[in-house]
Design brief:
Chain B: Residues 1-176 form the Transketolase-like pyrimidine-binding domain. Chain B: InterPro entries: THDP-binding (IPR029061), Transketo_C/PFOR_II (IPR009014), Transketolase-like_Pyr-bd (IPR005475), Transketolase_C (IPR033248). Chain B: One of its GO terms (biological process) is response to nutrient. The complex is a heterodimer of chains A (428) and B (334). Chain A is built from twelve helices and seven strands. Chain A is of the alpha/beta class. Chain A folds into two domains: 50-385, Rossmann fold (3-Layer(aba) Sandwich), CATH 3.40.50; 391-420. In chain A, strands 1-2-3-7-6 form a five-stranded parallel sheet, sandwiched between helices. The radius of gyration of chain A is 24 Å and the shape is globular. Chain B has 334 residues and is of the alpha/beta class. Chain B folds into two domains: 3-195, Rossmann fold (3-Layer(aba) Sandwich); 210-332, Rossmann fold (3-Layer(aba) Sandwich). Chain B has helices at residues 3-17, 41-45, 57-70, 88-95, 98-101, 131-135, 148-160, 225-237, 254-264, 279-291, 314-317, 321-332; strands at 21-25, 50-52, 73-77, 111-116, 141-143, 165-170, 210-213, 218-222, 241-245, 248-250, 267-274, 300-304. In chain B, the strands form three sheets. In chain B, strands 7-9-8-11-12 form a five-stranded mixed sheet, with helices on both faces. In chain B, helix 2 links the parallel strand 1 and strand 2. The chains are: A alpha/beta (428), B alpha/beta (334). At the A-B interface, helix 5 and helix 6 of A face helix 3, helix 4 and helix 5 of B.
């Protein structure tokens, strides 16, 4: 019998669309997420070829065990002072996020993004890198600046786009740029900074410099073409660069399955490029430190790039414009099997007798007070929406090194309009 | 020198003067580029300053931005301008905005060289003129030479410039000026005064147009290959036209344009790129805004058609002598 469809006797194809395991209202059960025991993953010598340890791209490097002890070959054996400094930075990041989130809700700025649950990813990396290694962060690595001791007031000035904002109110809040802290200008376009980090690292290598570069992106944006271009370049020229993929499970409301997580790990992306790949417990500050230090040593000894997947969880929404309650179960954050990075580091310090609950509570209070004081100081410079904090004519500065005629004309037009309106906006 | 040699000489001069200048792109290293524009540079300056890249335009430009931020002056090549689109985000969102968004903390002093334009039977993927896409973007400069002399001087200026610059090379005239008659033999640059290119350093400032022919009857605004096509048509028609080679589209030499149109009272704009939203539309608007009361006829635009670049019908697409001649009659009618 003739058919209206060629091949009608064949089974029809079907399109697979991934779906997260839990939606709002579902009970969360993460027992299927493999969490190998701390200390189990082997630690190859940094001089070994990437092909010798591909298993580590599928494993999970963990140092802190359930009892708060640091175990295994990846234990970086940090001094108690360093551990306490890392804890302090992580607590500061969390307090800073809390304050600024609230400031946004109070209408003091347009936008904010927390990194709650991911503090170890940036803070530990900052401790493991040299201060003049150039970081090409995504928008959730405020911990780099805080761990590098950068001024909270300066960060807040940027968030408020006020008169103290060194970026002259030209950039979205939290899209910092701090050359003095080797912190590259953040772009809201995802993973564009991967090839830029490679270029910076290649330039450093070509110049015989000793500085390396590090870049961050989320697991969702590993789908961007820039990610793959960067991996190719880094592999080809053995660029001294560290690629950090922060797998926090969610890209706004798209779960990691839409970036390919059901098929393989993100660390395994490295294997096809011949890049060293490590998958680490991103909520384990010591594991992140150890992996970053190891990757930095590879980079500094001309062994080439390393891609580190930080397996973690985004406790909060994507940004202040997001409502995670609409797309994921409320129970996910508390059920996350890798715990909370701040608590785990604190428990470790207590377990080794270098910290206690009283000191922790006192530090929390002290840091909250410090952040509040910084906020007060920053708000004295103004908050977003309360008038113009930058000189009106500065709007045209920095499009080009020298202002061409068409911008001069537009600037003059703007100033004339504003003068005619009679509003008292400041000029340079 | 032909235009390729002039471009090569510009890079040679700049690499010799400034160790921060590096050249990168597909095939630019050992082989010296598919058009030979980088020939000999790797042998002279070494492969850490002149090197081949993977075939990823977004990677090439992204890496160049990072190198620029480090303190180098990369001169990346995009082998054909038609292939610049994968790099669009790196150019538009990153290179063009880096200075502005970081308030000068980081800059991208890169010069992207790319052969562009049609007339070589390059089909849809080796013929396009994408300049209008970039002139629409704030923070990036666009430079288009029309002679070997200009190519060298402008390229040196672009490499020295601290802003990201696109340097589009009209490949139809790499070897000699082209009068638009595809069935006639092409003249060689050695027979043209602008083919006399000094060996050493000189530069032509960005933002300064060149009046290639002074005239009283009409102003013709052109760049690249069309400078020569327009000149040939004007010579054949015997019209006393003032022909202005814009040289740089951003920044644009508005003073020269305005003075000329006010003098002649008529204006014609010619480019190879598609018409709608092309740079000719911007030129037309500027002339109308500034010279309306001096105009004696509507502004005429002669452009490529709003189709993809056709292969076999290339010469029907190309804004050649016939189309320009008709437009010339129209604008000179009254």
């Amino acid at each position: 019998m003739p058919s209206d469809r060629p091949g009608a006797n064949l089974p029809p194809l079907s399109l697979y669309v991934p779906e997260p395991r839990f939606r709002p209202g579902d009970t969360v059960d993460f027992t299927e997420v493999p969490v190998p025991p701390a200390g189990q993953a082997r630690r190859p010598d940094t001089a070994e070829p990437a092909s010798a340890f591909t298993d580590l791209a599928y494993d999970l490097v963990r140092v802190l065990d359930a009892d708060g002890q640091a175990v295994g070959p990846w234990n970086p054996r940090l001094s108690p002072d360093t551990l306490r400094a890392m804890l302090r930075s992580m607590v500061t990041v969390r307090a800073f996020d809390e304050r600024m989130f609230r400031a946004q809700r109070q209408g003091k700025t347009s936008f904010y993004m927390k990194c709650t649950g991911e503090e170890a990813v940036a803070v530990s990396a900052a401790f493991a890198l040299d201060r003049d290694d150039m970081c090409f962060p995504s928008y959730r690595q405020q911990g780099l600046l805080i761990a590098r001791g950068w001024s909270l007031v300066d960060m807040m000035n940027q968030i408020y786009s006020n008169k103290g904002d060194r970026l002259q109110g030209k950039q979205l809040p939290i899209m910092y740029s701090v050359r003095d802290a080797s912190f590259f200008s953040i772009s809201g376009n995802l993973t564009t900074q991967y090839p830029q980090a490679v270029g910076w690292a290649m330039a450093s290598a070509a110049k015989g410099d000793t500085r390396i570069a590090a870049a961050w992106c989320g697991e969702g944006s590993t789908a961007e073409g820039d990610f793959h271009s960067a991996c190719t370049f880094a592999s080809v020229y053995r660029a001294p660069v560290i690629f950090n993929v922060v797998n926090n499970q969610w890209a706004i409301s798209s779960f990691s399955g839409f970036a390919g997580a059901e098929a393989t790990t993100f660390a395994a992306r490295a294997i096809g490029y011949g890049i060293a790949g490590l998958r680490v417990d991103g909520n384990d500050a010591l594991a992140v430190y150890a992996a970053t230090a190891w990757a930095a040593e590879r980079a500094r000894t001309n062994q080439g790039p390393t891609l580190i997947e930080h397996f973690t969880y985004r406790v909060e929404g994507h940004s202040t414009s997001d409502d995670p309650g609409q797309y994921r179960s409320a129970g996910e954050a508390s059920a996350w099997p890798l715990g909370d990075p701040v608590t785990r580091l604190k428990d470790h310090l207590i377990a080794i007798g270098e910290w206690d609950e009283e000191r922790h509570i006192a530090q929390d209070k002290e840091i909250a007070e410090m952040v509040r004081a910084a906020q007060k100081e920053a708000e004295a410079n103004g908050i977003l929406g309360h008038g113009l904090h930058q000189p009106l004519d500065s709007l045209f500065d920095g499009v080009f090194e020298e202002m061409p005629w068409h911008l001069r004309e537009q600037q003059a037009q703007m100033l004339a309009e504003e003068t005619a309106s009679g509003r008292p906006w400041a000029r340079k | 020198m032909n235009m390729i040699q002039a471009i090569n000489s510009a890079m040679d001069v700049m690499m010799d003067r400034d160790p921060a200048v590096i050249v990168m792109g597909e095939d630019v290293g050992y082989f010296g580029g598919v058009f030979r524009a980088t020939a000999g540079l790797q042998a002279k300056y070494g492969k850490t300053r002149v090197f081949d890249t993977p075939i990823t335009e977004c990677g090439i430009i992204g890496v160049a931005v990072g190198m620029g931020a480090y303190g180098l002056r990369p001169v990346p090549e995009i082998q054909f301008a038609d292939y610049i689109y994968p790099a669009l985000d790196q150019l538009v969102s990153e290179a063009a905005r880096l200075r502005y968004r970081s308030a000068g903390e980081f800059i991208a002093p890169i010069t992207v060289r790319s052969p562009f334009g049609g007339g070589i039977f390059g089909g849809q993927t080796h013929s396009q003129s994408p300049e209008g896409i970039f002139t629409h973007v704030s923070g990036i400069k666009t430079v288009i030479p029309s002679t070997p002399y200009d190519a060298k001087g402008l390229l040196i200026a672009a490499i020295e410039d601290n802003d990201p610059t696109l340097f589009f090379e009209p490949k139809r005239i790499y070897n000699g000026p082209f009068d638009g008659h595809w069935d006639r033999p092409t003249q060689n640059w050695s027979q043209h005064p602008a083919g006399a290119v000094p060996e050493g350093y000189y530069k032509i400032p960005l933002g300064k147009a060149n009046v290639v022919r002074e005239g009283e009857a009409l102003t013709i605004l052109v760049y690249g290959t069309m400078v020569h096509v327009a000149s040939a048509v004007v010579a054949d028609a015997g019209v006393d036209a003032e022909i202005i080679d814009l040289r740089t589209l951003v920044p644009l030499d508005i003073e020269t344009i305005e003075a000329s149109v006010k003098k002649t009272g008529r204006c014609m704009i010619i480019h190879e790129a598609t018409r709608t939203g092309g740079f000719g539309a911007e030129l037309s608007a500027l002339v109308q805004e500034r010279c309306f009361y001096h105009l004696e006829a509507p502004i005429e635009r002669v452009t490529g058609f709003d189709t993809p670049y056709p292969h076999s019908l290339e010469w029907a697409y190309f804004p050649g002598p016939v189309r320009i001649g008709e437009a010339l009659k129209k604008v000179m009618k009254d």
